[in-house]
């Protein structure tokens, strides 16, 4: 057979069925051949089987269990090849808990999902980046940056739509130099900048003075931060007179959200979880990455081979 699995003579392309390859001949008959290792490599997982490390995860799904550890090593989490333990370590949080939703939908979380988040016991943090909660027979892991980013994004977007003021004055005005083209765009976009919480005025031929910034941004806000937000807004509003600059609002939310590698107290964690439970879409970040994943007690016991 050729490299593509087709003979130079009578066989056509094979179809994979289960653990065999179904091959059709020119005369219409068929025969089954066992799949070889190259054919199995990189194939999507069969139903109920774990995804391989190089296989993309389907939307709403999560990465699967890892490979058995070598003697003297801890078990990994990227592959799992033991045929007796092909179980998921994480499952879609929608399976009895929180179902990921398309981020364009404005659907509030289910009452049961919200209640379970609110009553979950705070365990702590992992790597100062992920919040660990225990609720019933499940362990929940929350990406603290993605969670806070989602909270900030929804709040900023709502305030922009309602035209609520959410700016704060700076103790020391910030001077920013612009190019000639950027100055033209600044005059065109001054209304949007004001609605986003910026208070800025012309300061010379090619510079502006920023006197106020959105409340979500902290004292570390710099001229470079403004230029990045301004550039993003310019591209979004290039040819549209009335828009909701979602990518610009997302950038502001991202810059102001709690970062990874940041220690949080139990009180801070509880406050973040309560805000997340009240979000319109607490399941994914703005670009569709998961905010929460879960593992059941049963799955954990299977990984330790306490049960079959």
List keywords for this structure.
disordered N terminus; 4-stranded antiparallel β-sheet; 3-stranded antiparallel β-sheet; alpha+beta; 308 residues; 2 domains; 8 helices; Ribosomal Protein S8, Chain: A, domain 1
What does the model show?
This protein is an alpha+beta fold and 308 residues long. The protein has two domains: 41 residues, no CATH class; 191 residues, 2-Layer Sandwich (Ribosomal Protein S8, Chain: A, domain 1). It has eight helices and ten strands. A four-stranded antiparallel β-sheet has the order 4-5-6-10. A three-stranded antiparallel β-sheet has the order 1-2-3, with no helix packed on it. Helix 2 runs antiparallel to helix 7, helix 3 packs across helix 6 and helix 5 runs antiparallel to helix 6. The chain is elongated and about 75 Å long.
The fourth-level CATH homologous superfamily of the largest domain is MutL, C-terminal domain, regulatory subdomain
* Mean pLDDT metric: 74
The CATH class of the largest domain turns out to be Alpha Beta
Strand arrangement across the biggest beta sheet: 4-5-6-10
| Oligomeric grouping of the chains | single chain
- Uncertain stretches: 1-25, 30-69, 74-107
Alpha-beta content class: alpha+beta
Number of helices: 8
Largest sheet: 4 strands, antiparallel
Q: What is the CATH architecture term of the largest domain?
A: 2-Layer Sandwich
From N to C, what is the helix and strand string?
Answer: EEEHHEEEHEHEEHHHEH
**Rg from C-alpha positions?**
26 Å
Percent strand = 15-25%
Q: Give the number of domains.
A: 2
Assign the CATH topology of the largest domain: Ribosomal Protein S8, Chain: A, domain 1
Globular, elongated, flat, extended or rod-shaped: what is the shape? elongated
Fraction of helical residues: 25-40%
């Amino acid at each position: 057979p050729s490299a593509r699995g087709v003979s130079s003579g009578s066989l056509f392309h094979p179809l994979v069925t289960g653990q065999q390859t179904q091959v059709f001949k020119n005369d219409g008959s068929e025969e089954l051949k066992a799949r070889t290792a190259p054919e199995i490599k990189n194939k999507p997982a069969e139903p109920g089987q774990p995804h391989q490390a190089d296989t993309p995860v389907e939307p709403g799904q999560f990465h699967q269990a890892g490979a058995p550890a070598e003697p003297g090593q801890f078990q990994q989490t990227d592959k799992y090849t033991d045929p007796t333990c092909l179980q998921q370590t994480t499952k879609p949080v929608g399976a009895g808990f929180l179902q990921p939703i398309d981020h364009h939908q404005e659907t509030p979380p289910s009452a049961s999902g919200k209640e379970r988040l609110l009553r979950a016991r705070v365990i702590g943090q992992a790597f100062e980046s992920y919040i660990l909660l225990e609720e019933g027979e499940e362990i929940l892991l929350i990406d603290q940056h993605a969670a806070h980013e989602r909270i900030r994004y929804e709040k900023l977007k709502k305030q922009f739509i309602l035209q609520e003021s959410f700016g704060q004055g700076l103790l020391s005005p910030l001077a920013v130099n612009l190019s000639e083209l950027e100055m033209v765009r600044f005059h065109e976009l001054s209304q949007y900048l004001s609605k986003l919480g910026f208070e800025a005025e012309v300061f010379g031929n090619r510079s502006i003075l920023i006197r106020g910034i959105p409340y979500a941004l902290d004292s570390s806000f710099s001229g470079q931060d403004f230029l990045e937000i301004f550039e993003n807004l310019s591209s979004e509003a290039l040819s549209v007179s009335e828009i909701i600059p979602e990518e610009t609002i997302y950038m502001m939310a991202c810059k102001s959200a709690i970062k990874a590698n940041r220690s949080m107290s139990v009180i801070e964690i509880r406050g973040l979880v309560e805000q997340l439970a009240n979000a319109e879409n607490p399941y994914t970040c703005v670009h569709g990455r998961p905010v929460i994943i879960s593992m059941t007690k049963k799955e954990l016991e299977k990984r330790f081979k306490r049960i079959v």
